[in-house]
TrEMBL record:
Pfam families: S1
An example Gene Ontology molecular-function term: structural constituent of ribosome
A Gene Ontology cellular-component term: cytoplasm
InterPro entries membership: NA-bd_OB-fold, Ribos_protein_bS1-like, S1_domain
Gene Ontology BP, a term: translation
Domain of life, per lineage: Bacteria
Protein name according to UniProt: S1 RNA-binding domain-containing protein
Organism whose genome encodes this protein: Defluviitalea raffinosedens
Length: 123
């Protein structure tokens, strides 16, 4: 196995099992590895089932091979380069969404505080 696959190598595999912590990828008839959920995408991923399904063909980079156990750690996000333009646009839209959420929160918070003040000042 160590001769066939090397750390840093990018290969294609098939998702054969999905767990909350990651996905198992079949590399060939006798070899499989694990893509941890943190290695699926460049951003935060709450539910791995949102982006992966059993049977999907995926490109993965071999991150590590444990010589004693033969376990292979894989990364999907390292197999595909991150696009800096998209990430900059994404960061801007994330910032805008956060600002909108904060404005809504403050508005509702102020409305609730005003309602409470009004209620207690009348009694």
């Amino acid at each position: 196995m160590s001769v066939k696959y090397q750390v840093g190598q990018i290969v294609e595999g098939t998702i054969n099992s999905i767990k909350p912590f990651g996905a198992f990828v079949t590399l060939d008839e006798s070899t499989q590895g694990l893509v941890h959920i943190s290695q699926v995408t460049h951003g935060y991923l709450k539910d791995i089932n949102e982006v992966l399904s059993v049977g999907d063909k995926v490109k993965v980079k071999i991150v590590s091979i444990d010589a004693q156990t033969g376990k292979i750690s894989l990364s999907m996000k390292d197999a595909v380069p991150k696009k800096p333009v998209e990430s900059a646009q994404s960061a801007v839209s994330d910032k805008d969404r956060l600002e909108d959420m904060l404005k809504d929160f403050l508005k509702h918070s102020n409305e609730r505080q005003a309602a409470l003040n009004k209620r207690y000042n009348r009694q």
